[in-house]
Structure formats: C-alpha cells, structure tokens
Amino acid sequence: SKATILDMEQEAHDIIMQNCWYSEEGSYHQSSAGVLLEGKAVCAGYAETFEMLCNAVGIQTVGDYEKCLAL
C-alpha cells in the first residue's frame, strides 16, 4: 500500500530520533549537519533535518529557525 503523508512524516521523525541525541556539543549542533554527521544537535538541527527529509519525499515544509535560535 502507498504510504500516507503522516506515515512519511513519522518515518522522518523516527530516522532523526534513532540517529541523534540532543546536545549543544559538536561543531554543527545548530544544523542538519549535526544530526547527519555527528549524531547530535539542538532544536534547529532537528527541525532543519525534518524539513530536508520531508522535502526529499515531496512534502513541502518551511522551517522557522529564528524561533529555535531564540530559545
């Protein structure tokens, strides 16, 4: 059966959660590079990676990283 948008979003979430720890350590913790290269990031890195994975499968998303960085 064909995956729904919710299924694809859940898969993107699961990929991030299984491969990354929340951490302010690392050179790239504020970006998807932290998630993908170092396995650690903060909210901006999580959000950017989720946006990238969703966009890759055709789910249009837009991130608002200023709010993440302001916390």
Characterization of the model:
With 71 residues, the chain is mainly alpha-helical. It has helices at 5-19, 32-38, 43-56, 65-70, and strands at residues 21-22, 40-41. A two-stranded parallel sheet has the order 1-2. Helix 2 (32-38) links the parallel strand 1 (21-22) and strand 2. Helix 2 (32-38) packs across helix 3. The longest helix has 15 residues, at 5-19. The chain is globular, with a radius of gyration of 12 Å. The termini are far apart. The mean pLDDT is 90.
Main sheet: strands, sense, barrel:
2 strands, parallel
> What is the CA–CA distance across the termini?
41 Å
The largest sheet has its strands arranged as 1-2
Q: How large is the radius of gyration?
A: 12 Å
Overall number of strands? 2
Unreliable segments of 5+ consecutive residues: none
Keywords:
6% strand, 4 helices, mainly alpha, 71 residues, 59% helix
Short description:
The chain is 59% helix and 6% strand.
Break the fold down into its secondary structure elements and pairings.
Blueprint: H1 5-19, E1 21-22, H2 32-38, E2 40-41, H3 43-56, H4 65-70
Helix pairs in contact: 1-3, 2-3
